[in-house]
Design brief:
Order of helices and strands: HHHHHHHHH
Largest sheet: none
Strand content: under 5%
Radius of gyration: 21 Å
Shape: elongated
Number of domains: 2
Number of helices: 9
Helix content: 40-55%
Length: 185
């Protein structure tokens, strides 16, 4: 007999059982602890009728209110476990960037987030959580990593760089830019 990971339904039921309260009372308990957990969300999860994508706030509240680990809750939600917050790791002077510089940084981050979601969904059988890493090819990014995985290519895949209309990102675009400059000069 294999040991199956818990489902969101099982986790939600365990939370309600642990605290011996209704969804509404659990919502109040969560709020008293500074957590966000909608009673309708927890009730739908407990009955197996939840069809949305739970937010990070909801998942973190479920971790805090249960005996399950962050990894178990995120796996049940079919979501990669988030790493340490990016904003906490930005250099002190990051707020001094110009508006255009901020937009460029945000565009790159958005593209990576979008690529990670696509890769995570594409590499999990039937949309279910099947692992934390996605296969890569030359020039692409290891999209979903566990904290113990240290190496990551920082090169932006060509299709992603081109999809946002930004010039100067990706190898193919850099080559086209070089060829354009040679023909103009």
């Amino acid at each position: 007999m294999t040991n199956q990971p818990p489902t969101l339904r099982e986790i939600a039921r365990a939370i309600l059982d642990k605290h011996r309260v209704s969804g509404r009372a659990l919502n109040r308990l969560a709020e008293s602890k500074g957590l966000t957990l909608s009673y309708t969300t927890i009730n739908h999860m407990a009955t197996g009728t939840y069809t949305s994508r739970p937010s990070d706030k909801t998942l973190r509240a479920m971790v805090e209110l249960s005996d399950f680990t962050l990894e178990q809750v995120y796996a049940a939600a079919r979501r990669p476990v988030p790493r340490a917050g990016l904003r906490e790791r930005l250099p002190e002077d990051a707020d001094a960037l110009t508006g255009d510089q901020e937009e460029a940084v945000l565009a790159v981050v958005r593209q990576f987030v979008q690529a990670n979601r696509r890769l995570f969904e594409a590499t999990t059988p039937g949309g279910e959580h099947g692992g934390n890493t996605a296969p890569t090819s030359s020039g692409s990014v290891t999209a979903i990593r566990t904290p113990s995985e240290k190496a990551m290519s920082t090169e932006i895949p060509d299709d992603i760089a081109a999809s946002d209309g930004h010039r100067g990102h990706g190898r193919a675009q850099a080559e086209r830019d070089r060829q354009d400059q040679e023909t103009q000069g």
